[in-house]
Amino acid sequence: MSLRPARLRLSDLARLGGYGLRSRPLRAVLSALGIAIGIAAMTAVVGISASSRADLDQELAKLGTNMLTVSPGTTMFGKQATLPDESIAMIKWIGPVRSVTATGTLSATYAYRNDRIPAAQSGGLSVLAAKLDLLETVGGTLEHGAWLNAATDRYPAVVLGTTAAERLGNVPAVYIGGRWWVVVGVLRKVLLAPELDSAVLMGWPAATTYLGFDGHPTTVYTRSVESQVEAVRAVLAPTANPSAPGSVQVSKPSDALAARRATNATFDALLLGLGAVALLVGGIGVANTMVISVLERRSEIGLRRSQGATKGQVRTQFVMESLLLSLLGGAFGALLGYLVTGMYATTQKWPTVVPLWVLASAVGATVLIGALAGLYPAIRAARLSPTEALATT
Amino acid sequence: MNPLKTIMTAPLAGHPVIELAGVTKTYPGGVTALRSVDLVVGYGELLAIVGPSGSGKSTMLNLVGTLDRPSQGTVRIDGHDVASLSDRRLSALRARRIGFVFQQFHLAPGRDALGNVADGLLYTGLVRRERERRAEAALVRVGLGERLTHRPYQLSGGERQRVAIARAVAGDPPLLLADEPTGNLDSVSGAGVMGLLRELNEAGTTILVITHDREIASALPRQVPMRDGQVV
């Protein structure tokens, strides 16, 4: 008769591990919880940042990445430079430029809720003269009311940016330069031109007529053919101000937007680190549970040895148990992380995105942790001599 | 003894089921539990190893059950020299040729009678369905056909020991070792368990009972009295 030990089938092994966990369900759940929290934290961090990025991508796709803005920098002597009045017309001559528009800052001019507010309490809102085609070029939309038109841009009428409207309150008119200006509309948040959010916008002619505006544009907004954006960028400064191209700043707001979101990456790294610590603590918890389990189940180990289990089979049984425990935590944690991501993304009106690699690495990490945590207790269980194991009651 | 039975269970008959020759067991620390013991047990026997605690009978069980190896001498079980077998092969020998019954039953509390018995066959290599079929047959054989789905806590002490016996014989091993099988039972349940062992023996299984109880031992066909690590 051949004395070769029979192999345990995988299904039998899995069932065996399951019995072990089910015999102490509360302990299994609690020790799996540590792993679950770690995996949930890491999944949620990556998921939330991926969702935010997906949202940004969607927004940028909608807004377009072909907008370039031109603004005066500082002169060689450190003074605030201005753009020549002709710069708008000059930029229009650049071939791939599809549209050009501008705003002009009215320096030392402030908007107030009413005429009784002391002049010093200006509220930090800027007063800008705007060209009529501003809204189309920057991709702005109206919350309510109307944009300036050929009639209202000659008269004391203003459109408020979203932040400006919040600060001033729901007023029918604002007080600027000793005169009441009717509020004709309120803008939504303008993502590519956030400076408009805290602005009070009026017509170019009205600003000139009533507030003595000098007519110098301070920000020129352009849209170009998508494939030519970089080429346009290169020639914008010398075109806007041929005499002093160095004092012109050209920027691409979509890049700035993406960069601002990217700065969250350091925060993400911190949270990921915390998740990793939770995972490590969870792994130690599993190892601890397994060590105790082996101590408590000496007589079971002895019985199995008497029934013909080899050392290897005892070892495999306990590693399997640890793996199942860890996987249980990992699966629950991944689910939890997904739900947290979904909830957060919904409140932010983002799409819910949890990359597949995150779920895959969550499973991979838990398998690794389970195997590592279970190995030492399993080896101890296998080393136990059958007679010694059976002697304990 | 029924001669037919002897022929059936010992087809090769060239060797006894248990053969101990000059077996000495010394534990680390210098305690000698067995001193030069000789014992031969043929297929189909029913015998008791009887002695007070400290007489070496538990050590004897461990050696005969291949759970431990002798310090000196040879142990042959079912024709295999234990000293020549690796731990893996010894495990396989136990899985197929030896059944154990313990004083403390060692039943898994979370599994019903059928599960406990079927799990005992886990290391024989049989598929699950076959393990369960044999487990049910074994439970019917020990008179627990109506208790298949009962958990250990729902069974009396005598019934638990019957489950343990069913587990030990479900794989049809030629050798059954029972360590104080009635030690935790009242006299009525104890008598029932001994009756069951006798039935199993009549059906062909070699049974070695280890006990300190002379009364139980004297009811069996053969007694091996032990004292201070020696057969007396």
TrEMBL record, chain A:
It holds the Pfam family MacB_PCD. Keywords: Cell membrane, Membrane, Transmembrane, Transmembrane helix. Residues 274-386 form the ABC3 transporter permease C-terminal domain. InterPro entries: ABC3_permease_C (IPR003838), MacB_PCD (IPR025857), Macrolide_Exporter_MacB (IPR050250). It is a multi-pass membrane protein. It comes from the Bacteria. The keyword Transport does not apply. Residues 29-228 form the MacB-like periplasmic core domain. It is found in: Cell membrane. This is ABC transporter permease. It comes from Sphaerisporangium corydalis. The lineage of its organism: Bacteria, Bacillati, Actinomycetota, Actinomycetes, Streptosporangiales.
UniProtKB/TrEMBL annotation, chain B:
Keywords: ATP-binding, Nucleotide-binding, Transport. Residues 18-232 form the ABC transporter domain. GO terms for molecular function: ATP binding. SUPFAM superfamilies: P-loop containing nucleoside triphosphate hydrolases. CDD domains: ABC_MJ0796_LolCDE_FtsE. Coiled coil: none annotated. Pfam families: ABC_tran. It comes from the Bacteria. Gene3D superfamilies: P-loop containing nucleotide triphosphate hydrolases. InterPro entries: AAA+_ATPase (IPR003593), ABC_transporter-like_ATP-bd (IPR003439), ABC_transporter-like_CS (IPR017871), ABC_transpr_LolD-like (IPR015854), MacB-like_ATP-bd (IPR017911), P-loop_NTPase (IPR027417). This is ABC transporter ATP-binding protein.
